[in-house]
Amino acid sequence: MALAAAGLRRATPLAATALFMGANAPDVDVFSGFLAHYESLEFRRGWTHGVLALALWPFVLTGILLAWDRYVRLKRTPTAAPARAGPLLALTAIAVVSHPALDWLNNYGLRWLMPFSGRWFYGDALFVIDPWVWLLLGGAAFLTFSRSKLARVRWAVFFVLASALIFANSELVPTLSIVLWLGGAAALVAARWWLRDAPSVMLERAAQAGITVTAVYMIAMIGSSAAARADVSAAVAAQGIAPEDVMVAPVPADPFTGQVIVMTRDEYYTGRFGWLTEPRLQLDPGRVARPRGRVFELASQDAAARRFLVWSRYPAIDLEPDRGAIRVTFSDVRYRAGDQLEGPKVYLPTSVLENAD
User: Fold this and answer.
1) DSSP secondary structure code for residue 325 in this structure
2) pLDDT at 342 over 60
């Protein structure tokens, strides 16, 4: 919507529709959630987000739009200007690429190289729901697409729902961030009133400014994440810890703080990193063992566990006796706190544990 508001909607009839469709097309894999348990984790952000799909999506979407234009839109309004294939192809390509680029920014990750490689890539720069991106890009769209009363009602509903999501997680979102969110939303409403009679070119410049500031913010967060990883690596090395991998992932609405996972050969260290705290790195007292051995190998053969492990970045398991068997519960350390994303449970006979390494 921000790209459309910035002037790209004038490139050709159906331009805005092309941008909307392209930006959402890769998430057609959301329907994998209706399949067997954990198949969505195995499939999502893969085939439909990889390089082959990115090359094909623009042609598929352009074909759909041209067919709609010819057989529906122009039959309804024969005097309308027809959509142009070249601009539609360019716009859908821009929109399609924007989707995995934004997905890459969080710590959930995606597989850029599918179907040629299943390797996951992680930007670790922005939380999956970032209120500042909402304000900047949403604000850019709001100023243009809120001329009618119905549109303003829709925007009000969006703001209320977005605010409710932030307030519902007030234990994670800093108070200052909540104040800034409300102030930013109020500033957008004031700007909309001030620009109520502004020409389209002024609104387009406002949208272009919003996109530019968003890009600068994202680049800054990518750089901040890289610098934080280097800082954490040096800090743990000074404590005699030999890291194999370090993650400093964003947390809700706080660009100065990050969730830390340090993976060594045998275990995971977790903690928090803060640019404004001293010391910057604060490790939690407990550690999580990296899974290995016969129990893990046998449990990993379960179909749900295999699907989970395709997605898992920092896998872990917990063992508990359960009705004469051993319950093996899989998790990922990224989402382990508070059981944010529960992994599959596999039951093994107790004899396996007795014969384990």
Assistant:
1) E
2) yes
